[in-house]
Amino acid sequence: MSSSSAAAPEADWEAGLDWSAIGADALDRLREYVRFRTVNDPDAADPETPWLAAREAEAAAWLAGWLRAEGVACELVEPAAGRTTLVARIGPDDAARSVTLLSHSDVVPVVADEWDVDPFAAEIRDGWLYGRGTLDLKGLGVAQLTALVLLRRQGVPLRRAVVAVVAADEENGGGYGAEWLVRERPELLDTDVVLGEGGYSPTDFLPGVDLHAVAVAEKGYLELELTATGDAHHASMPLPGDAPARLVEAVARVLRAPDPVRVTPAVERLFAELATSARGPRRYLLRHPRLLERIGARALPADPMVCAMLAETCAVTILSGGYKSNVVPGRARAVLSMRLLPGADADASTERVRRLVDDPGVTVTRVMHKDPTDSPFGTADFATLSRVCAADGGARMVPILSPGGSDARYWRAAGVPSYGWVP
Is omega for the bond preceding 135 within 30 degrees of 0, making it cis? Predict the structure, then answer.
């Protein structure tokens, strides 16, 4: 994304490139990348060395070897043993402006019976690549680094430097990755724009309309642990108010409560864009989305993505308790994963859950909290993205609020516009 004024025409540097061969090479690299078992599971790590959870070091070193062979300057940053982040850069050394390409190398844990292939074999079946991390987020990482290599190889005269960050520990909040990086290396915040994950290109969102949905904001993350305690006893003589039963009731009260609905500026802009291609009642609702705030969650569309953009959501991700089938345990635990809309207050959301639980025998503890973040979508870089999307057969680019979280939050919090898109 070089400056639009006096920039070299794209066709000049692309002339002679064999995109079929480039794609095949990128696929081979992605398959090799997937085979690195960079599983980020702190609960499975040695309690005395939790920083060893994902061991991204080998994958980062392999990526660095590829880039260095192409003449791309890069460094490996390691805040703790094995937790390695790659930082690469091309372009003018004295460039005061830059574009940052952001991805991460760690992946979430694997449950074996959810797969019918080896999740780390990178097997191709019927034209699809199967493997943990292909979408989140090794595929985007390879695409970004391939672009970096091509720009370097073709000698494109860049007006801005291009910085690639392949972070560790994104799947557990970034404490050994991006969060540490921007704190200890604040010069990496001195960039014009960050391009990372969060958006996508849906094919069935509106009939007959090709969309590129670019995330201009993302919801915050609030993780709460609910713990119920009581006296352990034999299951043949159940006692009223035992720990598992109290926990189940408490969780049910939280889940039965309607999700608070609010229309954010990003969603209002999205709906305005979609209204031009809609008809009837759907068009009216898209043009007047704040009606949803008055009508409430029962009027939300059935699409899970849209629902998540309009409401504060809560999901149960862990339920645990018990050690013998005929013994009622004295402790039971649940973890709630809540996603907060921009402008939400984590303290208020936590207190709302405590009021809903309404049981002195069930404690509510905050485990993790990351604030929601948003970026302006009236910038020159956003306009460039829109122009690139329109060149793709006339597809329309729309801004969205990403229901998930990403490392871009750390750049957005520092005022750097950040846009998420995995085409």
Answer: no
CA dist 374 and 155 (Å) reads: 34
Task: Quote the CA–CA distance of 191 and 179 in Å, as a whole number.
Answer: 16
DSSP string, 122-184: -EEETTEEE-TTIIIIIHHHHHHHHHHHHHHHTT---SSEEEEEEES-GGGTSTTTHHHHHHH
Look at strands 418-420 and 193-196 and give their pairing. parallel
pTM reported for the whole predicted model: 0.89
Whole-angstrom distance, CA of residue 130 vs CA of residue 198: 21
Burial of 357 (0-12, 13-18, 19+ CB in 10 A): buried
pLDDT of residue 4: 38
At 66 the three-state DSSP class reads helix
User: Of 407, 250, 219, 405, which Cα lies nearest the Cα of 313?
Assistant: 219
**And the tokens for 54?**
């994902």
Residue 149 · residue 13 · CB < 8 Å: no
CA-derived radius of gyration, the chain: 24
Backbone phi, then psi, for 343, in 5-degree steps?
Answer: 90, -10
Q: Which residues contact 281 (CB under 8 A, 6 or more apart)?
A: none
Q: What is the pLDDT of residue 358?
A: 94
Please tell me the distance from the alpha carbon of residue 116 to that of residue 131, in angstroms, as a whole number.
Answer: 11
Q: By the 8 A CB rule, do 156 and 9 touch?
A: no
Question: What phi, psi does 263 have (nearest 5°)?
Answer: -95, 115
Strands (E), 14-132: 73-80, 83-90, 98-104, 123-125, 128-130
- Give the tens place of pLDDT for each residue, 171-182: 999 999 999 999
